[in-house]
Amino acid sequence: MTDITIARLLTTDEVAEILQVSKRTLESWRITGDGPACIKVGKHARYREADVADWINAQTPIAPTASKGAA
């Protein structure tokens, strides 16, 4: 018998809030494949909590910049 792991599914609203982007940006990323992986549940897009966390962790950190006036 196959083991099934039930993951918490997040809505577009929830993920947009977590990532601090608009729903429109998240939907655009979904179309282009730039955002976290999502699944379809009926006609709705849902995001596994672990997929969102993995996507965040995979992002390249912004390099610190030298502050003005620094020698």
UniProtKB/TrEMBL annotation:
InterPro entries per UniProt: DNA-bd_dom_put_sf (IPR009061), HTH_17 (IPR041657), SinI_DNA-bd (IPR010093), WH-like_DNA-bd_sf (IPR036388)
Pfam family, one: HTH_17
Domain Helix-turn-helix: 9-59
Coiled coil: none
Gene3D superfamilies in alphabetical order: Winged helix-like DNA-binding domain superfamily/Winged helix DNA-binding domain
GO function terms (MF aspect): DNA binding
UniProt-recorded name of the protein: Helix-turn-helix domain-containing protein
Organism, as annotated: Microbacterium tenebrionis
